[in-house]
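As promised in the previous annual report, we have extended the structural survey to additional targets. Below is the entry for TetR/AcrR family transcriptional regulator.
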Amino acid sequence: MDNGKTTASARRPGGQRRADAQRSIDKILTAGLKLYSSRPGVSVAEVAEAAGVGRVTLYGHFPSRTELAKALMERTFEETEAAWQSVDTSGPADEALDRVLREQWHLMERNRNLRENVLGDVSPQWLRTRHDPILRRVEALISRGQDEGVFRNDLPLSWMVTTLYSLAHAAADEITAGRLTAEQAPEILSTSLRSLYRP
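The corresponding structure token record, generated without further manual editing, is:
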């Protein structure tokens, strides 16, 4: 019942409320990506504080850690898919794949801590499924390499894609464990895949 006291939110037109909500969401996702990518073990409270919103506001948009984690990963995947557009994949497929790995490694490295932060909140199956649009591009490149004769044909294509996905994450895990540096990783990953894929 209205006692003559109407909240500021209620007084704003619907379009303005939606714009305010979107600004809050953008601030939360921007702060979350920055924090989640900086180190493991980030809390929701830290994200809310960095975004300049209260925890109630954050949970109003993302009711659980899982929802926040999925939203952060979705934004990351959008950026990664967009970055693919800038990579030159012309020429021999083996050289093109090498360029993709080296030029996109900065995104993989940036997302290393992000992945550590979300692993407890989303399932590995969800992560793998959400990688599918990117992995389909990898699959097309490997298939092209098989047709060109620069990649082996005696292993299932799906297995070759899976090995790239697994080795990229293994490299990230080795960096986290201190057994590999971020500078070494692209060359080691590229060399390992060349050895595996070579006819």
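Residues 93-118 form the longest helix (26 residues). The radius of gyration is 21 Å. These points will be discussed at the next consortium meeting with the crystallography subgroup.
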